[in-house]
Every structure is written in C-alpha cells, then in structure tokens.
Amino acid sequence: MQRRSFFRAAGATLATSTLVLAGCKDDEEPATPVVNNVIAFNGFDTTTRQPIDDGVLNYAYLLEQLEAAFYQKVVASPPADLLPGELAYLTDLRDHELIHREYLKALLGSKAYDVSLAAPLEFNFSSLTLTTRVGVWTAARQLEDIGVAAYNGAGKLLVVTSNLLALGKLASVEARHAALVHEILQSDSFASTVGADGLDDAKTPTEVIELIKSFLPVEVSVAALPTT
Amino acid sequence: MNLFNIISELEKVDPEIMDRLTHRRSAFTALGNFGKKLALASAPIAIGSAFNKAVGQNTLNNVNEVFNYALLLERLEYSFYDQALKAATLTAPLTGVARTAIETIRGHELAHVNLLTAALGTNAAPAPANGFDFGTAFATYASFLTFAQAFEDTGVRAYKGQAGNIDPTLNPMVGGNAVNLLQTALQIHSVEARHAAHIRVMRRGATAGNQTNIFPWVINAEPNGAPAPVYGAGNPVATFPAESNLMQGGLTLTSVGGKTYTAEDVSAAFDEALDSTTVTNIASSVVKF
Q1: Residue B86, exposed/middle/buried by CB under 10 A (0-12, 13-18, 19+)?
Q2: B160 and chain A: CB distance < 8 Å anywhere?
Q3: What are the strands, taking DSSP E only, across B211-258?
Q4: What is the pLDDT of residues A66-123, one digit of tens each?
Q5: Which residue, of B38, B73, B78, B261, has the greatest Cβ tally within 10 A?
Q6: Rounded to an integer, what is the distance from CA B278 to the centroid of its chain?
Q7: Helix, strand or coil for residue A15?
Q8: How many Å apart are CA A147 and CA A64, to the nearest integer?
Q9: Domain extent at residue B151
C-alpha cells in the first residue's frame, strides 16, 4: 500500500482507499490500487460496536456545509434577473446555513470529519445553472428538500436525546426554507413534497448521498452509519 | 415529556440512572421493556410505564399520551381550517391560490388526524364532544392568518418537544405497513413547519396588508400579533427556551467560527421546542374545547 495514512477522527475517516467501504481492516493490503479519496462516516463505537451519533452528526454537518457553500456562491455572484427582495432572502438563507454549519462544527469539535484536513471540502456546483433566478431557486429547492428529507430520515438513527433535539431545531428551519423556495418558483407548491398520507419526505443517508454526490469532490460512504 | 426533568426525579430513587440514560436506546431498554412488550402484545403503541413514578406535570407518560396529545392538536388545526373555509366572513378575501393553500393545509391536518387515529387504534382519545370554538378568529382575513400562524408555529414547537419521547425502535403495524413512529412524527413536524412558513408568506401579501416585517422563519420572539407565549419559554426554560434564544450547545452563536451574526439570523436559524403543558395552555387560551 503506497499511502497508508488514514486521517482518523472519531466520527469519520478520510481514507485513501475505497476499500474502507468493504470494511477492510487497517492491516490488510488493498486489493485494488488507490483511486479515490473516501470519507466514511462511522456510526459505531470502534471498541464496543454500540451506535454513536458522531457519524450522523458529521453527515448533517456535510449537508449544512453544502447548503452554506451553495448560498455563499450565489450571494457572491447573484443572477442579474433576481426579483426585488430575492437577494435579501438568499442572504438570509446563506446566513442561516452558515450558522447551522458553524454550530455543528463546534458541536463535533475534534470529531468533525474534516478537522485534520488542510482546508474544508470544496463543493462542485458546475452542474447547476446559477446565472438565472430560476436556475438558482430550482437548485435551492432541490437542496432544501434534500435537507428536510435527510433530517426526517436521520432522527431515528440518533442515540442521544439532546442530539435529536439539536437536529430537530435545524430540521424545521430547513422546512421553512423549503416552503419559501417552493413558493418563489411556483404558487401553492410550498408542500408539494407532502404525500396523501400527510407526511413529508424522508430519505436514508444512502439515498441522500446518491442525490448530492455530483456536488461532492470526494466519495462519501455512509455504509458504516446505523440503518435503524 | 422532558427527559432532563425526570432524570433528576429518577436519580432520587435510582442513583445509577444516569449511566443507563447515556444512550437513548438503552434508556428505553432499561425503563421501557415492560411497555415495549405491551406494545408488541396488545396496544399498537405503548412504552415507558416505568417512567410513571417519576413523571411530573410537564411530561406525558407514554407514547399513547404523546400521540393523543398530537391528535388533539391535529384535530384542533383541522377544525380551524375547516371552519375558516366555511366562514362567510372569509368568502371574499380567501380566494384563488390563498383558498387552495388553505384547502391543502386542511387536507394535511385531516391526514394527520387519520394517521394518528389509526396508529393509536383503541387507545385513541375521543374528539372533544362540543368541537372547537375559535371565537372571533374568522372575523377578518388578517385575524384568521394571525391565528393560523400561532397554531402552526405552536405545532412545530409541540412536535419538536415530543421527539425525544418516542422510542426510535417502535415500528408498529399501521394500515398493514410497519411504521417507525419517531420518523412519522418528524415527517409531520416538517409539514407543520412548511405550513407555518407559508402562512407567514401569505401575511406578507397584499390581501393581508403587506406585512413584510413577517418572515417565513421566527425572528427573535416576535409574535406578529399572535399570543406572545407561542414564542416564549416553556418549562423548564433550560430545555425549552424562548424563540429568541441565541445559545445552542453552550455556544452563543452571534459570534462563531471567526464571524459575527445578528440576533435576528441566529434566532431564526433555530426553532425551539415546547413542553406539552405550555402548549396546552396556549391552545386553551384561544380555543374553547
């Protein structure tokens, strides 16, 4: 193995081999060449194998980083056809997401997955159309809906009650954002994600990562998070 | 139910309780086995009978109580929108996309009532015999939306306040499908937040008087004409601070990560939870039922 260095944090591992996904032990040689950087969020204590929240909190931290970076990029270079008041909304959304990001980073402390990285991840928004207001709000709607569904799906994976409450405080704010962004794009679409059963969307971490992977500069594995 | 409140009570009878409560799942294992078996054996949902000795006024004893409390709030909300859509005073102002939006919200509240009723099965409490009396709420379009904001924002706080009381491993069969009760509650919680945001957006519109000081999110503890307790602190305040709270996890977030943020942004970025007693008092102060 050419690069054995693992950047370990309690809640996440930035490894240099996709073999982390397969549960390869540290002392085994990888069977395939190193091709990708992989961030693997770990939701279990390494010695007791009991579920811990660090992995899920890191997953939430990644989502908030992504949202904050998106709005930062948009506000720094807004589309020319924004309607009156829309830049103010985008600025509020940016600041809420920045506060969410910094809060989770502080909450995680040394367990933040990127604590050992020289620089935070840089997200790739090249697939989005950010030069028109419709493009910006469509992307925002996608990200906010993903955020809501992610928090709805992640709550049951947490073991510490105070963490459930902490993420719940963010989740409903994401839903408020989502409702606004929906409405900006189309009248009366504020709840178009809600089914006939009256329930909003909920997605597993695996489903969420699949939806956001085009924005991520590295592979993210949630295979080591709890699933129930 | 506020877990922190009862921990101190439990400590009086069981000094080692903190060790068992380190993890939520093990807390339910330690304290709720009897209830879990009961849930599997007979009642669709029931846990936590071991809590009974310790619970105080601000707590709900078990999941049946949590879901009956939610059911009461959902019945209240459904009745509120149903009466609004039938109110002669609102026929003229509540038209077009505004009426459609309220019909959509009423539909969600009815779906929540039906879902919770099904989940509770024979444990479902009866609806209030005389229905709900909202007084002068429907006198004007503006007063209707003010009440709506109060109910939706209270609903968000109420669900958030109960999430920690729902055992994440409870997956009863509802309508032929295994349903995770905690996830279901969270999926309702975000719907209430979407409603709250939309009602607030409607209040910014011309028909409601262009109240552009109202935002889709809660800034400080500004009531925007709703009863102040909707945005105030619950009991205990440490667990249920007012919406103007700027401190999360021991950090004052107006200065974090080398940057400063306004109190407006910090308070808006977090929705605070509320205990069941405070929520019930708010509802009782504006609705007869």
Answers
A1: exposed
A2: yes
A3: 247-248, 251-252, 255-256
A4: 999 999 999 999 999 999 999 999 999 999 999 999 999 999 999 999 998 888 999 9
A5: B73
A6: 11
A7: strand
A8: 8
A9: 3-286
B10 pLDDT more than 60: no
CB B180 within 8 A of CB B168: yes
Give pLDDT, residue B218.
98
Q: Is A156 on the interface with B (CB under 8 A)?
A: yes
Distance CA A141, CA A148 (A): 11
Mean pLDDT of chain B: 84
Cβ of residue A187 closer than 8 Å to a chain B Cβ: yes
Q: What is the pLDDT of residues A173-188, one digit of tens each?
A: 999 999 999 999 999 9
**pLDDT at residue B61, rounded to an integer:** 64
Sign of CA dihedral A142, A148, A149, A153: positive
Total domain count, chain B: 1
Domains of chain A listed by start with CATH number = 56-204 (1.20.1260.10)
Distances (CA, A) of B152 to A106, A200, B95: 31, 15, 21
A149 CA to chain B: closest CA distance, Å? 8
Q: Specify the pairing of strand A7-8 against strand A12-15.
A: antiparallel
Q: Is A39 helix (H, G, I), strand (E, B) or coil?
A: strand
The burial class, CB within 10 Å (0-12 / 13-18 / 19+), for B47 is buried
| ipTM summary value | 0.87
